[in-house]
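It would be a great kindness if you could assist me with a short task in structural biology. A protein sequence and the structure tokens that stand for its backbone fold form the material at issue. I should value your view on which stretches of the chain appear to form regular backbone elements. The record follows directly beneath this note.
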Amino acid sequence: MNDPAGFATRGLRLALVGDFALDAYWFLDPAKSAPSLETGLPTRPIRIQRYSLGGAANVAANMAALGCRTVHALGVVGRDPWAVEMIRQLEGRGVDASGLLVQEDGWNTPVFIKPHLKGRESNRFDTADYNRLSRRTENALFGRLERLLPRVDILVVNQQIRDSLHCASFRRRMAWLLKRHRDRLIIADTRDYGREYRHAALKLNEHEARRLSGARDTRKAAITLYRRSRRPVFVTRGRRGCLVCWKGGLAGVPALKVRGRTDTVGAGDSTLAGLALALAAGRNPVEAARFGNLVATVTVRKLYTTGIATMTEVRRLARGRGGGS
């Protein structure tokens, strides 16, 4: 493939099930801090607040921005303002958010709240660690997924939060579903459950690949994981690009050089979006990794946001590097 971005995405249909989240950036400015009338403690004034799509929501937004015809979002949100904001942003990007089910009790919409003071991020607030998926919500979600799967070009499975959506019963059903539909195109990006989702292609970072495989060397880790499943394995390596193991062998796909400041939050999400689109368009795993690298290179240049890349930006970048390799 001479041009890594040289394929059409407009006819593609994708489904994405996973941890749909918001990243909240709160920029504090203590200049107007004052004692609280109720507690006497100093207030922490917020000068600026921004909300970016995170986790599976960021993957979905990137796939839509890259021109995908239909992106089906499947996940769980709470009855809270965070869900309203997330769905507003997703639908504004053209994502079908009707599969984001509301669970009234025992569930908070996942939000990663990042306070910044004097240019530095302080302790993060997370809302989803105590979520408990109800059987009713789980049944409804899998019902939707079963109906959608035959109608999409690829299924993407995302897991970032341990034991929230991906609780034990959910994982058992997901593993069964992946095995039953192992002839379908499926890719999973999972921090903790790659062994259980072995009937899907895997996208991992180096730490996750070594931990899952038991190998100390990243190359050996990729080979071990491929041999277990006989499905493509993509190992992201930051500035060193992506390592791909598939039926064609083991290949390193170099990253593009990036000048100036970068923000790597969400880089894995944008890489996954690029991988999924390229695979759904019929590209081989090495070509898909090249496209994923391009998408991530666009997004890491966007500061204080999880980052969304358009196909116009990706193609401009591809042309700037001589049309690919």
About this structure: The chain has one domain: 13-20+53-110+131-320.
